[in-house]
């Protein structure tokens, strides 16, 4: 609910400053959506209890020395 209120406030403020037109409303909605998407993608994921490792890339260990799980940084 709060993001919708902030988006509405952004559109209303832009219309008060630049004048009300359908172009301005559409442009500000699009700009707010892009800004929200960038903000959402930039957030860091929350680790759940018990998660210690971060997977950077997938590796497959083959052979007798498959002890990479014994080492924790």
What's the overall average pLDDT, rounded?
80
The low-confidence parts are: none
Rg is 23 Å
Name the shape in a single word.
elongated
H/E element sequence: HH
Oligomeric composition of the shown chains: single chain
Strand content: under 5%
Q: Count the E strands.
A: 0
Determine the structural class based on helices, strands and strand pairing: mainly alpha
The biggest beta sheet reads: none
Q: Count of DSSP helices?
A: 2
Helical percent range? Answer: 40-55%
The separation of the N and C termini measures 40 Å
Folded structure, characterized:
This protein is mostly helical. The protein is built from two helices and no strands. Helix 1 packs across helix 2. The chain is elongated.
List the helices and strands and how they pair.
Blueprint: H1 2-18, H2 22-42
Annotation keywords:
elongated; 73 residues; single chain; 0% strand
Brief sketch in words of this structure:
The protein has 73 residues and is an all-alpha fold.
């Amino acid at each position: 609910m709060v993001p919708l209120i902030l988006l509405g406030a952004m559109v209303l403020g832009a219309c008060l400053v630049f004048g009300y037109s359908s172009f301005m409303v559409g442009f500000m909605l699009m700009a707010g959506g892009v800004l929200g998407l960038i903000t959402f993608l930039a957030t860091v994921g929350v680790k759940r209890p018990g998660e210690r490792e971060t997977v950077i890339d997938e590796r497959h260990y083959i052979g007798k020395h498959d002890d990479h799980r014994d080492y924790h940084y």
